[in-house]
Design brief:
Order of helices and strands: EHEEHEHHEHEEHEEEHEEHEEHH
Cofactor: NAD(+)
Protein name: UDP-glucose 4-epimerase
Largest sheet: 7 strands, parallel
Keywords: Carbohydrate metabolism, Isomerase, NAD
Shape: globular
Structural class: alpha/beta
Bound molecules: uridine-5'-diphosphate
CATH topology of the largest domain: Rossmann fold
Number of strands: 14
Helix content: 25-40%
Strand order of the largest sheet: 3-2-1-4-5-6-11
CATH architecture of the largest domain: 3-Layer(aba) Sandwich
CATH superfamily of the largest domain: NAD(P)-binding Rossmann-like Domain
EC number: 5.1.3.2
Radius of gyration: 19 Å
Distance between the termini: 32 Å
Number of helices: 10
InterPro entries: Epimerase_deHydtase, NAD(P)-bd_dom_sf, UDP_G4E
CATH class of the largest domain: Alpha Beta
Amino acid sequence: MKNVIVTGGAGYIGSHACKALRDAGYVPITFDNLSTGWQEAVKFGPFEQGDLLDRARLDDVFAKYKPIAVMHFAAFSQVGESMTDPGKYWRNNVFGSLQLIEAAVDAGCLNFVFSSTCATFGDQDNVVLNEESPQFPINSYGASKRAIEDILANFEQSHNLKSVVFRYFNVAGCDPDGEVGEFHQPETHLIPLMLDAIAGKRDALTIYGTDYDTPDGTCIRDYVHVCDLVDAHVLGLEWLSNNKGSRYFNLGTGTGFSVREVLDESRAVTNKEVPHVEGPRRPGDCTKLVSGSERAMTELGWSPQRSTMKEMIKDAWHWHQTGHYDK
Ligand code: UDP
């Protein structure tokens, strides 16, 4: 059995990763405390409810499944919240990851795929980032993920832990089959909020800042379809299985969209106006985060298939109309 522990497997990206793993012949074991995830999203392998801060529970799960690898998604990920409650990010993201890493090495599981973020780079206006770009996070979320990258590097030196680290840009879209989707409570992400506003499920979307140094004054982000993103993770696992060693990969498309451009594209896909108002900047937001992904393409053979803005909004809109988790 090719068991893989997937922390955060009940969440948005983790649940899509479990489906991709199942389809590639692995058994994804979801380890999730359901603080932000949904048990209904665990459909593709066993579920073990547990918290990263509970070391004994982690040890039990490693002993029970003897996994060949860990895929670590579980984390708090709201930039704004990380600025007002940094302790939550350092405790859960950093200390929780340390517990997981120690449990993995103690169980002899030395392959680790980690979900990091472009927020580790911080604000570097008007550059297209790559894996060698300097990392100067400007929010606690990015700083917490950066710290975990360092822990992984240290544990490679001490325990030969091999890791593939993916730094994501913005993740969007949903499983086109509608089996799993994006549903956060509370929701803070641009595309689901925008679709809710279109559908009249919440008030007008607030554009966070219109005075950035960008062509239309709103922030620019690089959006990747969640299905393409999780495909890269399966390739990362194969990379580790083939003993190719630790590696960092940025997962972007090289193309940025401003908030206003995302709104325009949504109008085009849904044929509906997006009710919106202009508001002040959100603390912690970078002006522009865009990356190429040449390394992932050439070394992993990653080939994104669905990462056009149109496709991402289409799949998100389909899920928005047909799928949801109850609680
Ligand atoms: N954004 C916005 N209004 C919202 C939510 C997000 O204008 O209600 C903007 C946000 O400032 C950022 C972009 O949309 O420029 C993407 O934000 P999101 O929270 O989706 O992802 P993040 O970039 O924080 O990971």
